[in-house]
Each structure stands twice: as C-alpha cells, then as structure tokens.
Fold this sequence. Notes:
31% of the residues lie in helices and 25% in strands. It contains six helices and eight strands, in the order βαβαββαββββααα. Strands 1, 2, 3, 4, 5, 6, 7 and 8 form an eight-stranded mixed sheet that branches. 40% of the residues are buried. The mean pLDDT is 93.
Amino acid sequence: MEIILATGNLHKVEEITDILKDLNVKIKPMTSFEKYPEVVEDGKTLQDNAIKKATEVAKYFRSWAIADDTGLEVHSLNGEPGVYSSRYAGEHCTYEDNNKKLLKALSGVPMENRQARFRCVIALSDPEGNVKILEEGKIKGYIAESLSGTAGFGYDPLFYVPKYEKTFAELGEELKNKISHRALALQAFKSRLANLAFF
Length: 199
C-alpha cells in the first residue's frame, strides 16, 4: 500500500516519514515524482488547507494521499501567525525571517504573557478526493525571548516546553517526534488508518 505525502517541505517529509515508519505502508513524498501539483494554501483554517492539499494531490496522482497543515498560535497576538505561520514574514520568507518577526512582535512582553500553542491537522484522501481521516494534535508552550537549540526547523528554536525546560530545537528529534503537535496528530491518524477497509 502506497500513500503519497503532499508536501514539498523536506523537513516535514523527514519528520512525518520517521513518525510513520512502523506502518505497513509505503510513504512516498510527492517531490519524488517528476511532476506534481502546486497547491495554493488559501484556506481560512488549518483544516481547510490540509484537506485541500490531500484531496488535490490524491486526485492528481489517483492515489491515496496524506497532508498536514500546521500553525503556531500566540495568545497575546490574537492567535497569530496561525494559518500564515509558514509565510508570517511574507511570501518566500525564511525560517529566520519568521522568527525575527515573531521576536519583534513580542518585544517587551514578559514570559508569563508569551503563551502559545502549536496545532497540526492531518488529512487522508482516497484517490477520488474523499477525506477518510481528519485528525488534530496540539501542544501548549511559550515563545522564548531568544533562539535556543539547533535541531528541528521553523519556530522550533523559539517554542519552549515548560515540562522539559527546553525549546523544540533543544529536545532532539526522538523526543520531539513523540510529544509534538504533529506527532500527536499522526499517532491518532495511525490508529484510525489500521481500521480502514484496505488494511
């Protein structure tokens, strides 16, 4: 059984395939194909974008497809950057650009008011574009006052988890892939995947 992973983000490919490695399926990134669709993420919610990516890629390849959309929501910024997390500092921005903008937006805000959460929505589409699984994972934390750690990607050097007294970027891949928003969504996804008819 083959499922196409609907993302061009190599960091996400690595993380998702690692978390799903014990499944009795082959996860194939869409970027491993010579041609693949460029899906415009114009949904108003993470769920909208996850569903759109999964269904468009599934119909394009006429195959099962999985997609995720992830957002960082900062309480004192009224939930920003949210659905715009990957392009918070503008189109074609870098992780560094996004982190700089976030730190600037929270300049002078004390740690106790820097609450945030990461949310991840996972969608699985059948080859006809019907959503068969939709799951969400989330984790609460704080936005650190400076970057810390070298692992991970995106906002990981700023997302501080009080329980471990470390940022995502300091936790290491093994631990992060057990407790993160994406890991929680994928764990729920895995348990439901086993119950689908093709298994």
